[in-house]
Specification:
- The chain is 69% helix and 11% strand.
- It has 289 residues and is mostly helical.
- The chain has two domains: 203 residues, Alpha-lytic protease prodomain-like (Up-down Bundle), CATH 1.20.1510; 76 residues, Cation efflux protein, cytoplasmic domain (Alpha-Beta Plaits, 2-Layer Sandwich).
- A three-stranded mixed sheet has the order 1-2-3.
């Protein structure tokens, strides 16, 4: 149910990015604005990254099997890592070209490019909020990365708007303000790229989930009648789902069957409390004060 929605969000981003990239590229070329061209390049990166996210979310929706007993959820983190690295690469490329443009005399940007940027910012900011909300509801790292990519595009458009405005108001001699804006935009893109890469790599490295989730899982387990103590609670994230394992201490006099039943109750209690938990591995131990 959640996966098809993630795919739809990625598809929406693809369609919007394709249209905006074309509009900004044509506007930048016709309006003599490198900042707008740099913004178009960022949108093209968005377009390609959207395809990566689309594929990552699709693969992550595949079920568990003998070869992949924990499913394909890591495909989302791989897609998010790729998107972040693409942003880093785009930022470096834009920065290098912007510095070249600053040193090269060129024409003043056309006033109509400002109108193009206003429309772009409005569309991108709206898309960012919509996709980020969906990512939070799905618990998807890849969809969240796609959302922040949209926000990155909106910010670079704002930087381009400021640069072009300064160039137009300042008049002859201020043409490079447009290129300085592109340089500033590259720094913003770089920051967002690193912001996306970090949590994705942490997920791939099986970093422990946030402490609030583990605390809530422990409280749910302790509330089960018969549980005397909890220790060694661990977890990892796979796509939007979590896998937990914990050691439960109970009365040493319990039979093997009774211990098995109790472990099932603990598992059910945690999954009922935390729907995002895909599976819980419970290891039963005798309680030793």
């Amino acid at each position: 149910m959640t996966r098809p929605r993630g795919v739809r969000l990625a598809q929406l981003g693809l369609l919007v990015n394709a249209g905006l990239a074309l509009i900004k590229l044509m506007g930048g070329i016709l309006g003599n604005s490198y900042a707008l061209i740099a913004d178009a390049v960022e949108s093209m990166a968005d377009l390609f990254s959207g395809m990566v996210v689309w594929r990552g979310v699709s693969v992550a929706s595949w079920g568990e099997n003998q070869e992949y007993p924990f499913g394909y959820g890591k495909a989302e983190a791989l897609a998010a890592s790729f998107v972040g690295l693409m942003l880093v690469g785009a930022a470096l490329g834009i920065a290098i070209q912007a510095m070249r443009e600053i040193l090269t005399p060129h024409h003043m940007p056309a006033p109509f490019t400002l109108a193009v940027l206003v429309g772009v910012v409005a569309v991108k900011e709206t898309l960012f909020r919509f996709v980020l909300k969906g990512a939070a509801e799905l618990g998807s790292t890849a969809v969240a990365a796609d959302a922040w990519h949209h926000r990155s595009d909106a910010i670079t458009s704002v930087a381009a708007f400021v640069g072009i405005s300064v160039a137009l108001v300042g008049g002859p001699g201020w043409e490079s303000a447009d290129d300085v804006a592109a340089l500033v935009a590259s720094g913003i893109i770089l920051y967002n790229g690193l912001k996306i890469v970090r949590p994705a790599i942490q997920e791939l490295m099986d970093r422990s989930p946030n402490s609030a989730l583990l605390t809530e899982a422990e409280q749910a387990a302790r509330a089960v009648p018969g549980v005397r103590a909890i220790e060694k609670l661990r977890g990892r994230k796979t796509g939007p789902r979590y896998y937990l394992d914990l050691h439960v201490q109970a009365d040493p006099g319990l039979s093997l069957h009774e211990a098995h039943v109790l472990s099932g109750m603990v598992k059910s209690a945690i999954r009922q409390q935390l729907p995002a938990v895909q599976n819980v591995l419970v290891h039963m131990e005798p309680f030793e004060p």
